[in-house]
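## Example record

The block below lists the input lines for one assembly entry, exactly as stored, with component labels intact.
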Amino acid sequence: MTELAAVKAALKTQAVETPSWAYGNSGTRFKVFAQQGVPRTPQEKLDDAARVHEFTGVAPTVALHIPWDRVEDYAALAKHAQDRGVRLGAVNSNTFQDDDYRLGSICHPDAAVRRKAVDHLLECVDIMDATGSRDLKLWFADGTNYPGQDDIRSRQDRLAEGLAEVYERLGEGQRMLLEYKLFEPAFYTTDVPDWGTAYAHCLKLGDKAQVVVDTGHHAPGTNIEFIVATLLREGKLGGFDFNSRFYADDDLMVGAADPFQLFRIMYEVVRGGGFTSDVAFMLDQCHNIEAKIPAIIRSVMNVQEATAKALLVDRAALGEAQASGDVLGANAVLMDAYDTDVRPLLREVREEMGLDPEPLAAYRRSGWAERIVAERVGGEQAGWGA
Amino acid sequence: MTELAAVKAALKTQAVETPSWAYGNSGTRFKVFAQQGVPRTPQEKLDDAARVHEFTGVAPTVALHIPWDRVEDYAALAKHAQDRGVRLGAVNSNTFQDDDYRLGSICHPDAAVRRKAVDHLLECVDIMDATGSRDLKLWFADGTNYPGQDDIRSRQDRLAEGLAEVYERLGEGQRMLLEYKLFEPAFYTTDVPDWGTAYAHCLKLGDKAQVVVDTGHHAPGTNIEFIVATLLREGKLGGFDFNSRFYADDDLMVGAADPFQLFRIMYEVVRGGGFTSDVAFMLDQCHNIEAKIPAIIRSVMNVQEATAKALLVDRAALGEAQASGDVLGANAVLMDAYDTDVRPLLREVREEMGLDPEPLAAYRRSGWAERIVAERVGGEQAGWGA
Amino acid sequence: MTELAAVKAALKTQAVETPSWAYGNSGTRFKVFAQQGVPRTPQEKLDDAARVHEFTGVAPTVALHIPWDRVEDYAALAKHAQDRGVRLGAVNSNTFQDDDYRLGSICHPDAAVRRKAVDHLLECVDIMDATGSRDLKLWFADGTNYPGQDDIRSRQDRLAEGLAEVYERLGEGQRMLLEYKLFEPAFYTTDVPDWGTAYAHCLKLGDKAQVVVDTGHHAPGTNIEFIVATLLREGKLGGFDFNSRFYADDDLMVGAADPFQLFRIMYEVVRGGGFTSDVAFMLDQCHNIEAKIPAIIRSVMNVQEATAKALLVDRAALGEAQASGDVLGANAVLMDAYDTDVRPLLREVREEMGLDPEPLAAYRRSGWAERIVAERVGGEQAGWGA
Amino acid sequence: MTELAAVKAALKTQAVETPSWAYGNSGTRFKVFAQQGVPRTPQEKLDDAARVHEFTGVAPTVALHIPWDRVEDYAALAKHAQDRGVRLGAVNSNTFQDDDYRLGSICHPDAAVRRKAVDHLLECVDIMDATGSRDLKLWFADGTNYPGQDDIRSRQDRLAEGLAEVYERLGEGQRMLLEYKLFEPAFYTTDVPDWGTAYAHCLKLGDKAQVVVDTGHHAPGTNIEFIVATLLREGKLGGFDFNSRFYADDDLMVGAADPFQLFRIMYEVVRGGGFTSDVAFMLDQCHNIEAKIPAIIRSVMNVQEATAKALLVDRAALGEAQASGDVLGANAVLMDAYDTDVRPLLREVREEMGLDPEPLAAYRRSGWAERIVAERVGGEQAGWGA
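Predicted structure tokens for the full assembly:
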């Protein structure tokens, strides 16, 4: 197989999971701008996600969020997905929208609230059993707003205890993916604020516990690809929540703010063997002002383009330049791949996959956008609180 | 008058404006935690604000937010305030919560939306006429989320045009306070992102246009007291929106995150003559998880303490050390004031003002908290969308 | 002229000024790593700069730094340059390396030190007269390290006074370019920390005073292209000091850290008419660990590539998408230009200019690198202190 | 023992290690301003450090830096210290100032350079054997400036290998303290950039490897006290390098930029048992423009004041408020301690220790400053390169 053929083959196997909630309404604390045609049910979210996969060919799974996607019959939901050509993916828990969680969930000072939070997480594993999902994705909004509000260390103890109970419940082949975030909604301490904290907890829990990197959850200046390389080296990179940001956790389309950074991240994934392992590539974005389905298609394409560039890096030449201390030469090898316009290559890949080479144009022609606006009338649109 | 007497006299004249919306519910994009006893009407907000003034003695005015505080009869609202010992303060506009404002208000590409936004601002001046308010406070959520989304420069042109129309409408003794903010809710460009932009616009508008500094609206590392000193030097500091933050626009209680910074800011105010001029000192905070009225009382006290310390700086000694290039000596003079425990002094000030020396304890004893929980049942609690 | 021909024509007229000091040694506070073949005299720096222009065709001028490039006979220096095909460019002052400047220069509390600093600036204008340089570039290291160390406002007064004296000295056709910087070497206040401060001073000085944007001198998260658009709109953008950074003022090669940002900046330059005006495009970088001449060639090429992409933006399509509020469409128009591989176009441009299409390869083949290592033996290598 | 007596007793046992290099000249990359009276030898640095201990009573040890403090006879150096009432403390390695280290030391692509670096570290352990020092403090300047320059993961492998060899060499009772730093002098990747990386390496090395927290080495917004609490909980906090910063690694006097943060850090130390354990409290500062010995005395006092406030926190009341979810109450308990003026208490403590209550005044009266200016004439002043 030629090198280019190998790159193409790799790109054809790529899988980017889209999140059910990105198809619903979202916004900032100032305003949620509702859009027409937004899904009203988990089933309709899957219908939209299926369109993304139909036109990109690399978005085969859909992440659920409980309780936003709570249904009576998860097997039926899985069937609904399957009928449309997609599968259910990671199950995301929610321990931040109940009034009880004002001061935290699994780290709350009150044992009763902690019990409730852990029970919810256990319920999520039950749902995973029903859906056949591999990954339980845990993001905790837990933290404090004011110095002294709660004891930093005690909260870590509570976190460790709660995680351990959930970990024990995981079945064969199931994983716990622990996400970290610098801040928001907590504004002084966050109980899992950085990769180090997530890593330390996962290490103690065991092999089924892995760290998930949300690309928008770091302090300014953080070198994310370094974290990716380190977690891969430690065997602890469980997956990504992709999005992009100029400021804080802006949740813009991945690749929109700093495409070079996305490329560098994907290069470390490729270099560290993450592309062919169990690392989960997920989107976690908010399309507050732009059309949601096209934005998600575009995001998937952005990940593809960054991946294609990463796969095109001439690693032999790079290694040689690095070994000889040729700073400019090594940088030039990397930049040569980045500067390449990979869109023609991806058009070829799509055609070889039997897809339209232009996913966005194909989606627009499909009439889906008009159809959902016409059909999804009445009911309550999905959103973060739905 | 001794120096201490002068400090006390200054502290007794201090006036911190509290915002009506801080008495209502607020939250993050993830969740608004409702609290018991929260006001349901502008009148009830004024009732709460009156308590803050009653116990602190230095919170005599209340900022309104239109449309959140829209009433039929503003004169009656002013009377309601007056009957409770407070007055109506700045009028804050809102051009970010209507569906039309998805892509901006006064900077929107569509002239019709801009017209609507400017009309709202003009309405706010009408309200100022009715309430006798001096200040129109303008914060624009306008901006873009994606590179290319709109033309940066054209948006500035539109901004200038809209502001000019509103400026013309201002009456004698009325002012326009233009606020800047680095980001949020816009995540790529914000149309008034920094003091320089606000200053440039105000300069062209004229003397009635002034810059307002929200202490939470800067990039990491920004030296806020430098901006304060500069704006005072330029005669362009209109006022403050006080709050504090560890990360972004966290809107925590002022002085809670970095009390030394608040002190440095107040020192520049004192040094630059801002304390005895028309600079408006306002709070703009969100009490998402803590009890609102006590949090506002505490915030007012924090401003008092920082002011007291700033007033206590031995400026003669400071000037001497500065002039002689004594780095450590000059710093020590400033720190000596900061390290002073001014709470005893403020207790004295309050007693001399006929107040309880401990505002929070007095508030707690007053029974107000229990009363509003008992009485404010039913109706819709005030919040950002109310 | 077709559109592509117009783009090519524009690219052929581009001019990027390289700084004499970038050819000398530089480093961090921890270590300056000396390189072989580094110039020992201003003349040798010009010799190197001439190579950069020879191979790129778009680096016709060289910025001087006084006193590092102080010579007896500036006319002879200008002739030296001319003989090698380049010209002398902006004159950069230095008011930070004399022991007298420990607490500042033009803002120093001691009038004698201020006098010395202003005299140095006046001397720089004398040199401009001799070299025929248009621009006096002013960067002040002035500031304080500790709160209270000096009076923020008094320092502004001193700054204004000093600048006014120098401004008066400017001849016909000469300009003063005022640079701002967030921090370093001052670590608490910097006397010209942001574009607003530089702008306010330039506004008062007059038309010959303009702001210079160093791309590495901003707080994290600052939107630089917004500043560029604003300064162009105000007629106050004098020029750029290009470099790139991941953290602070890292002074890496321009385009190395965030090529998308450089493209966005160049787009605003093109959109705002800055590309065909008097805006000066200068490099200001430190090649601490990489070979200097190739790094500078690469930097010039990076600016060219970003400019080419900016010129390729389909502005009609962009304007249409923006006007119609098509967020994704407008973003896609911009990204389409950015994603284009412009290296083939630039190879064509170079060939049409009679240059080798691959400047770095041509430089390597020229033997210059080996020659300077062989010839520049003995003497004292140029560096920041030379 | 009353509570206050316990606080006093704790304060009397406090030990803050001062670094030999802080007594020498330092600066920024722009300029090192030499000061009069600066030590010229390791012995003279110890003489100065002895003054700091003499007047504060809590600075009994002095950190060495190799090769800056290299001597023929370390036993004699230890004796020199002992004769002046102080002891030799941690040994700091230097793998960043040799020309060989341009591309790194222990992580360098070339095995020969790595060998040299490891040999230097082993030499440092030899010196520890001679001086009786407990701690080897390792800070690596290793990293890269450009994407692609070297392989992130391979550098981690080299780091692990080098550390393991040094770890094996440690004797009974000796420790390895691994410091992390976000950036500088490397500007793209740093090989030990965050606590997570340092922690992961220390975990694999064993109990003698511990993390050291330099308070200036974090990304903007990082919650340092959270890291302190976490490392204490993990049993992996080896010590502190204290200093303060407004921007990057400014190396200002500890407590000068954010005294509230220093208090919060010290509170976590107290709460986590770090104050009575083997945690090393060291200064690592640069007194670029201020007098060095008084600055160090002031820094030691700042640590004392923060510690005193931390010890004064009413932990019973705090715990109660935290357990009951009283956000404002818990915060108030913490703030009550912080707002206390502890200078009178510390004056008492000093008097009970037989010291002058005002260390800076006593130092000034001692005539030491004048004496060293008079006596230390000729020779080469100590500095980072000495």
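Chain B has one domain: 14-376. Residues 111-131 of chain B form the longest helix (21 residues).
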